[in-house]
Design goal:
Blueprint: E1 24-35, H1 38-46, H2 54-66, H3 69-72, E2 81-91, E3 102-113, H4 118-136, E4 144-154, E5 161-162
Helix pairs in contact: 2-4
């Protein structure tokens, strides 16, 4: 695929017509990471953040955010999401390849539809990271969100794709 599907022959933005496509089962997995000071991670893990359970709130926000993707990304089709799970894994310096401290976020979303669900998975990860930042910014304004990326997708005309494979 060498053409941009959201651009017409005149170079104007357009929403792709998926009306004639077959409905298929589709899944996407995305990941991201928010790094922070060790004391911030400890506060999250211990459950002592002033705003409440950071990981529970981030998980719910991610799922809710994924359902609003079409409201945020102009050319996304609204999807009837059939599966949504979010894993939030704390990482100590010795557990992460780069020696970073923080939370690894992984979102797995599924749909039976005419178009992919990659943007919803990426949105879920982004919203989870932003929620963690929001809930902890009073104690650590230097947190950094990064490496938000698709790691796997399956279904549809293009089939299965996995990062590094």
């Amino acid at each position: 695929m060498n053409e941009l599907t959201h651009i017409n022959s005149k170079g104007e933005a357009r929403m792709v017509d998926v009306g004639q496509k077959d409905e298929t089962s589709r899944q996407a997995i995305a990941e991201g990471f928010i790094c922070m000071q060790p004391k911030t991670l400890a506060m999250i893990v211990e459950g002592s953040a002033a705003k409440g359970d950071v990981l529970a709130c981030a998980r719910i926000a991610a799922i809710m955010g994924s359902k609003r993707t079409a409201d945020l990304i102009p050319m996304c089709h609204p999807l009837n999401i059939t599966q949504s799970s979010v894993e939030l894994t704390p990482y100590a310096p010795s557990e992460h390849p780069d020696g970073l401290v923080g939370i690894h976020v992984e979102a797995t979303l599924g749909v039976s539809g005419k178009t992919g669900i990659e943007m919803e998975a990426l949105t879920a990860v982004s919203v989870a990271c932003l929620t963690i930042y929001d809930m902890c910014k009073a104690v650590d304004r230097g947190m950094e969100i990064g490496t938000i990326r698709l790691t796997h997708k399956e279904g549809g005309k293009s089939g299965t794709w996995s990062r590094g494979g």
